[in-house]
Amino acid sequence: MRTLCALLLLGGPLAAQPENIRMDRVRADLFFLASPALEGRQSGARGSEVALEWVAAEFAKAGLQPVAGTSFKQPVPVIEYRVDSRSSGLTVRWRDREESFRSPEASGSFPRDYQAKGEVVFAGFGITAPELGYDDYAGLDARGKIVLVFDDEPQEYDPASIFNGREMTLHATGQMKMTNALRHGAVALLTAAEPNRKHPAYRELLQRRRGAARSGPPVASQALDPGAPAIPVFSISDKLAAALIAAAGQTPAALQAAIDATAKPASLALPGVEAEVRIVLSERRRSKTANVVGMIEGSDPKLKNETVLVCGHYDHLGADGEAGYMPGADDNASGTAGLVELARVFAASPVKPRRTLVFAALAAEERGLLGAYHYTLHPPRPLETTRAVLNLDMIGRNEAETVETKGLIEIAADTSNELNLMALTFGAGAREAMDRANAGVGLQLNDKWDREPALRMLARSDHYPFLLRGIPAVFFFTGMHPDYHTARDTPDTVNYAKMGRILKLAWRAASEFAGTDNPPRFRATTR
């Protein structure tokens, strides 16, 4: 009876198939993807082109169908650019003085030359959340102005916060703040760390990491060509934020304290303060890469029009000055090899899922989730009928403390059977579905990363653009380790036994989401 119930929960006879996952094949694939021949799979470079062609060939061999036309490749046009740091920056004019700022006091980037000036206004945390009755822009005229906001969101350490308690909402993320500022007519956005923070600012964490990874020169930035409408974002220092807010006779600490105490905005104009932002590029050229997308059509006459997406990015960081190349075995050859193996197993099964399963190896994640953003801007199947996204990114290692995570995240003494799942909050029913799927696997599941605001992991992988479009998503992530983004992230360091269990869980979860009558429903907040 228990077996029958499990089969029904997972969509029928498909539940007998996880045993067909072959870890010898996965291991060989991972060694290939992280080999010197692929040169670190830098987006747009030869190694990443080899990787995407390999994924397309494996999809074809497995018997997947292209989602659109006859090709598995979805072109992703990009701009490669470098900002001239000597000519770019922020100039602020107070009533009695003028001062120019460069990195690290004010750091910004944009994929084209840009110049704008305007009055500066303070918009709290930059959040408009009608579902919570909260709006930092209420009564504030931001049209044609440069807007200053705090990072993250109010009351982030308060379990009773309207912003999902200790768990982050999407409003805490930088893309949401930029989009909201643009929607209110701003010409640029300035972001500052919360003055009363209980954790290091993100710019401080980047300083922790600096020098720990790539030893060669930085690669050019990339952006979609064209992308969604955007404005430049400058990260500014605590000192500069305090100087701007002082024009209104206030301090950043007092303003944050007022917002946190009342859960009400404290936005205001900054009298007599104007600013000019300038972005000058020293290099700009068009390039291209591609997502690799294949599908297994659903068996149900109606539900086959709905989609469950399984994804993971195949790119990495490319060359390194000292080591020659960055293998990216865990990040993310592990997810790519796992994605391909799941596609093979599902395709080989004589019983197909009720909903259509789409498998997508996504491009340019390391350059800003560009492949995932492009997919959501140009979906090969309708987003409104996409019921769930499973994102496999770094599924091959045991979590361990790093210079970036030290003091910020609790790490168990033994993580050899632990898997972090992120973003379950945003899918009503997703947590219960994952628990059911795990009942036949036995991993130790942990959602601790949803309650860690400093490292911004919620917005650092390919599930995030789908969350922004209101699609439930689950981020499979074994956690950080000292070899992250270094030449030491090699295939011999992967825990293949654990990775096999993770792929079984992903198989069972995809089976349930593709077969259930009650897929998860997106929710922006639990309040």
Summarize the structure.
Helix content is 26%, strand content 24%.
Question: Which key terms come to mind for this protein?
Answer:
alpha/beta; 2 domains; Glucose Oxidase, domain 1; 527 residues; disordered N terminus; Aminopeptidase
Descriptive overview:
- The chain has 527 residues and is of the alpha/beta class.
- It has helices spanning 2-9, 23-33, 46-62, 174-183, 202-209, 238-245, 252-262, 329-348, 370-377, 430-438, 464-468, 496-515; strands at 65-66, 73-83, 89-93, 98-101, 106-109, 114-122, 128-129, 134-135, 146-150, 188-192, 221-224, 233-236, 268-279, 281-296, 307-313, 319-320, 324-325, 356-362, 386-392, 418-422, 427-428, 444-446, 473-477, 521-522.
- β7 and β8 form a beta hairpin.
- It is globular.
- The protein folds into two domains: 24-78 and 307-399 and 414-516, Zn peptidases (Aminopeptidase, 3-Layer(aba) Sandwich), CATH 3.40.630.10; 85-279, Glucose Oxidase, domain 1 (3-Layer(bba) Sandwich), CATH 3.50.30.
- The model is unreliable at 1-16 (pLDDT under 50).
- α8 (329-348) packs across α12 and α10 crosses α12.
Q: Percent helix among the residues?
A: 25-40%
Provide the β-strand percentage band.
Answer: 15-25%
Based on secondary structure, the structural category is alpha/beta
Q: What is the CATH superfamily label of the largest domain?
A: Zn peptidases
Spans of at least 5 consecutive residues with low confidence: 1-16
CATH topology of the largest domain: Aminopeptidase
> Alpha-carbon distance between the termini?
38 Å
How many helices? The count is: 12
Largest sheet: 10 strands, mixed
Number of domains: 2
Task: Give the class-level CATH name of the largest domain.
Answer: Alpha Beta
From the alpha carbons, calculate the radius of gyration and give it in angstroms. Answer: 23 Å
The count of DSSP E runs of length 2 or more, i.e. the number of strands, is 24
Morphology call:
globular
